[in-house]
Structures are given as C-alpha cells and as structure tokens.
Amino acid sequence: MFRYIVKRLGQTLLVLFCVSVFSFFLIRMAPGNPAVMMLPDGASEEAIQEMEVRLGLDQPLYVQYFKYITGVLKGDLGTSTAYRTDVAQIIAQRLPNTLALTAVTVVAGCLFAIPLGIIAGSHKGTAVDFFTMLFALLGQSMSPVWLAVLNVFVFGVWLGWLSTMGTGSVAHYVLPVATLAYPMAAQIARIGRSGMIDTLQEDYITATYAKGIRRFTVNWKYAFKNALVPIVTLVGMQTGAFIAGTIIVETVFSWPGIGQLLNLSVGNRDYALVQSVLLVSAAFFAVINLIVDIINSLIDPRINLR
Amino acid sequence: METLLSIKELGVVYHTERSKVYAVNGLSLEIAKGESLGLVGETGAGKTTTALAALNLLPKSAERSGDILYEGKSVFHMRERELLKLRGGEIAMIFQNPLTALNPVFTVGEQIEMVLRAHGGGKNRQIRERAGELLETVGIPRYRLKDYPGQFSGGMRQRVGIAAALASSPKLLIADEPTTALDVTIQAQILELMKELQLRSNMSLLMITHNLGIISELCQHVAVMYAGTIIEYGEVAKVFKNPLHPYTIGLLGALPKLDGPRSRLTAIPGRIADPQNLPPGCPFHPRCERCQEECQSKTPGLAAIEEKHFVSCHLYTKEVRP
Ligand SMILES: Nc1ncnc2c1ncn2[C@@H]1O[C@H](COP(=O)(O)OP(=O)(O)O)[C@@H](O)[C@H]1O
Ligand SMILES: [Mg+2]
C-alpha cells in the first residue's frame, strides 16, 4: 500500500509537469498581451515595451518557462499581472471557497443519489424506479450552464426565494450546490441502480437469502457493498472534473472561488494566475483519483493496488 | 419414518420475455427425517428449480403450482418471519458453483457468521468462536476466517459453503451438485466430508447430482428426474440393480464401470427435452427406443412395480405385449 502510494505520487508529479508545460504554452498562444492589459487604454508603444521587459515577456519562451518552473518548485507561483499580488496568496484565498462548494455538492449529491439508486435498483420496475430514472434522464440531459441560468431565473429572479450572488450564508449554497449536484446525482443514481440490479442477480445473493437473511439486510449490507465500487469511481471522477463545472457555476452565482478566478484571469491574460490555477486543479484531480483507488481496494479485496 | 419435506405435484413455469419455460411439471417427492435422498437428472431437468422452490426462493418470473410442505406446513404460504427461520435455519443449501456462491467483498468469516447471527445469535465473540470451529470442522484452519473468497481455491470455497450451511444445524441439507464444478480428486474429498458430517449429525440430505456414483455412496433412496418430473424412484440398491425406465437404464449404461470388465459406454441418444417446448405424452418418448403409440399422447403416472420401487412408464403400467 505504502509503495503503491509513493509510486502513484511519482506518476502524479509527471502529470503535473506535463500540465505545467501545456498550460504555460497554451495561454501564451492565445491572442492578447498582459502588458497591454495592465496599462491604461491608448498607452504608447514604448510604455508597452517597457512593461514587457518588466514582466520578463521579452525573453525567449524557454527561459520564461524555466524561471516559472524553478519558482514553482521553490513554492513561488509568481505574481498576478491583474491583481499585482502573489498568485499563491490569491489562490489560497479562493481555494477554500471552491473546496467548500465541491465538498457540500459531493456530500449532498451522494447522500441523495446513492440511496435513491440502491432503492431503485432493488425495486426494479416499480414507481420509485420509474421516477428515479426520469430524474436521472433529466439531470443528464441538462447542461450546467442551462441549469444555472434556469435556477437564477426561477428561484432568484422570479420566485425571489434564494440569493443568487456570493457566499456567506447557508442559503447562498442552495442554488450553486443544486446546479452542480443535480447532474452528478443523476449519474450516481443511474450507476447505483444498475450496479444493484447486476449484483442482485448474482448467485451469492440467492445464497444469502437461502441463509435466512432479511431483504433489507441483503440490499443494504450485502449487495450494497458490491454496488459501491463503480459509485466511488464515478464520484471521484466527477469531483475531479468539478473545476470545469465550477467555472460556470461560480461565474453565474458570483461565487468567489477558483473557477471564477480562472475565468477572470483568462480574460485578463494573467499568465501566472492561469498557469497556477490549472496546476492546482490538476493536483486536486490526481489526489482524488488516488483516494478513489485506495477506497475501492478497501471495499473490494479483488482490486489489488500494485 | 416421519416425513420432513413433502413436495406435492410441484409445477414451475418461468415466464421470460420470449417464451414460457416449463421447468418443473407435477413433481412429487418425500424426504423422511434422517433420510438421504439422491435426485439425479441431466442439466436443465429442473433440479435447482425444485431446490429453490423448497426454500420459497424462486424469482418473481416463476409461476408455481402444487405445494411443498415442511413438517406439514406449506412453504408457499409461510409468513416472512417463518420463511426467515426456514431458510438457513431448518433447510440449508449448498450451491452448485462455489466460485459464484460466496460474496467476493465479504470475508469468509462474515459469510459463516451471518448464518449464526440470523439463527440463534449470541455475543460477537461467541459467534466468531463458533465460526472458527465450523471452519475447522471442514478442514480449514480458523485463522483464515478473515480471508476473502478470492484467496481460496474452488474446493476450499465449497468447504466454506458447507461450513456456512451447517452453521445452524439444519434438519435438511440440500446439496445442489456440490462437486460438479470441482476437480475429481477434490470431489472425492468433499464427498467424504459430506458423508462423515451427515452420519454424525443425523440430518436429512437431498443430494442433487448427475453423478450416479455419488448417489450409491451417500444415499438410501434415489429419484430420477426427467423434464421436470420424477420418472423413477426407489431404494438405491433396487433401482441400480434393476432399473426399469428406459431413461434410467440408459443412465446406468452410460456410467463407466470402474470394476469388472469395462462395458461399452452406452450414452442415451438424442437431447434432453426442451422445457420451452415439451413433447406431448411421455416427455422421454422422442429418445426412447421402446416408444409405443400410447407414449406419444398419454402422460404416464408414477406406479409401484415392487415394494419401494416406482416407475412412470407405459411399459410397466399395462401388460407388455410380446
Ligand atoms: N430464472 C429463470 N428464468 C428462466 N428460465 C430459467 C430460470 N432458471 C432456470 N430456468 C430454466 O429452467 C430449466 C430448469 O433449470 P434448472 O432448475 O436450473 O435445472 P438443473 O438444475 O436441473 O440443471 C432450464 O431450462 C433453465 O434454463
Ligand atoms: Mg442446477
């Protein structure tokens, strides 16, 4: 187990290196110039050149990259051109917001969707199953953008029940969490249902009934654990992919997390900030995947960590 | 002898999307207390279906008729609470395929302990202790309680299945082809173990198999099953020495003899009756060498030919014409 974790962390470092290279060159391939963005409109050519020198943009790309990566290794993520402060500091300020949004969404989604999937799967063909599938189908066919806008209009503007801007109270969580959690819950419910249906057809479930175990225990103790492995994998993948979803949701709901930050920084051509946000997201993704593998190996002994 | 389990005119039809499968067709059978009965038949004859019916564990797609009485009480009409006691407590079952009959994500210990907890209960420590004893009874050291099924061979897993079945000291053990999926040498070990345990505990045994050798080793009575019904029944010695039904004769002929001069292996020509499309009359008639006109239209009933020997065949129920 320990050796496995070390090995995985090694792989993760390699992935992060690739991400750093890609994000570095991709953002520089986009049209636009951070030096221009930092100066007032109509700045002179000399002023722009002077600013480029100050930012180090006049140097060859590989030199810039080398400076950037050695800085990262020393814990220095650079300075944001738009905010004129330390990138690490900005991210540290916003990351907790995104993590809180992610954590609440994942927990809420799981608490709702896992039992729903298990009940639907163990009551295949009943009304519960039918409505679960309907719920899942709707959730999977709605894009986050559409759902976010719908939520803002219906609950924020039209009904006026809930706040659609910023953080601060529990009520602030409702709409962003619902927007992010619904498509996720839809998928979890589906996977949970089909995992349960497959499991309940296994010989060992008939054998468990033949031992005089009641239906509730068979479903929620014995079959549940078998159906859990694909659920954990899915939740992990979704959590990792969340950053993408949070860009939309944080922007729509003015949630001051790193999704919103990424959106703003790309607009500002804030090279240092974009690179670092992508790097942090990738690290987040890698760690989640590692955790998923470890949890699954604990649930199902047939999954060997090697 | 007192009757423990009595199957009366059992019929089971599986309704699938495309067709109806007539898996069991008017099967009657009795098992006395302490008796060991062999149920022989080819794959698809309806043996597993019959066993699951005795536990009231048929899937929803199965339509049943007839009745099964356990100690005089209808299994089909039992309440949930009685059923939970019956399953695993009164009647335990060993499944055909040990590789699929144990849940891969729970320890072997848990799969024995769940029986103990459901029937009797007790403190956790006592249950663990008892599970260890059971494992040792079937020849596996107790420290392996915390291992998962995937860490055991097929034969070992079947031993675990036996240990779990014996955990509640059931009155009837149904063993559904317990050795079919195993190597020949392992088969012999498992049979030896079952024989020993049955002698020791005085429980009834329903040994389902298509291996006649197993029957003569373990059983007092044998029922031969074809297309979901019993076509011959009697004491093992009588049936084996003097088989009556052409199917039984064929089965015994198909058994290679280990001692004495090796007779030619006479397999029964043709294939087992298709339960989705059963022939009219005697279900065996399309394969029968001695088929007569009557056999093609009239279903024969089980009739006593000598004491404790019954057959369901037109050849014996009326005077055979020369
Ligand atoms: N759940 C089921 N649905 C439909 N058909 C089934 C089902 N279980 C068994 N059958 C069919 O019923 C017949 C008898 O099966 P089974 O009782 O398993 O026979 P055996 O144990 O003697 O091999 C077979 O034709 C089998 O395909
Ligand atoms: Mg079978």
List the helices and strands and how they pair.
The complex is a heterodimer of chains A (306) and B (322).
Chain A lengths: L1 H28 L4 H5 L6 H11 L5 H13 L13 H36 L4 H15 L2 H15 L11 H31 L2 H8 L4 H26 L1 H11 L5 H11 L2 H29 L7
Helix pairs in contact in A: 1-13, 5-6, 5-8, 5-10, 6-8, 7-8, 7-11, 8-10, 10-13, 11-12, 12-13
Chain B lengths: L2 E13 L4 E13 L3 E5 L6 H8 L7 E9 L2 E2 L5 H11 E4 L13 H11 L5 H14 L16 H13 L5 E5 L7 H18 L2 E6 L2 H7 L2 E6 L2 E7 H6 L4 H9 L48 E4 L2 E3 L2 H4 L5
Parallel strand pairs in B: 3-8, 3-9, 6-7, 7-8
Antiparallel strand pairs in B: 1-2, 1-4, 4-5, 9-10, 10-12, 11-12
Helix pairs in contact in B: 3-4, 3-5, 4-5, 5-6
The structure holds adenosine-5'-diphosphate (ADP) and magnesium ion (MG).
Q: What can you see in these coordinates?
A:
- The complex is a heterodimer of chains A (306) and B (322).
- With 306 residues, chain A is mainly alpha-helical.
- Helix content of chain A is 78%, strand content 0%.
- Chain A has two domains: 2-73, no CATH class; 91-299, MetI-like fold, CATH 1.10.3720.10.
- Chain A starts with a helix and ends in a 7-residue tail after the last helix.
- Chain B contains ten helices and twelve strands.
- An eight-stranded mixed β-sheet of chain B has the order 6-7-8-3-9-10-12-11, with helices on both faces. In chain B, strands 2-1-4-5 form a four-stranded antiparallel β-sheet, with helices on one face.
- In chain B, strand 4 and strand 5 form a beta hairpin.
- Mean pLDDT of chain B is 90; it is low at 260-265.
- The interface between A and B is medium-sized, with 20 and 32 residues.
- Magnesium ion (MG) is lined by residues 47-48, 96, 176-177 of chain B.
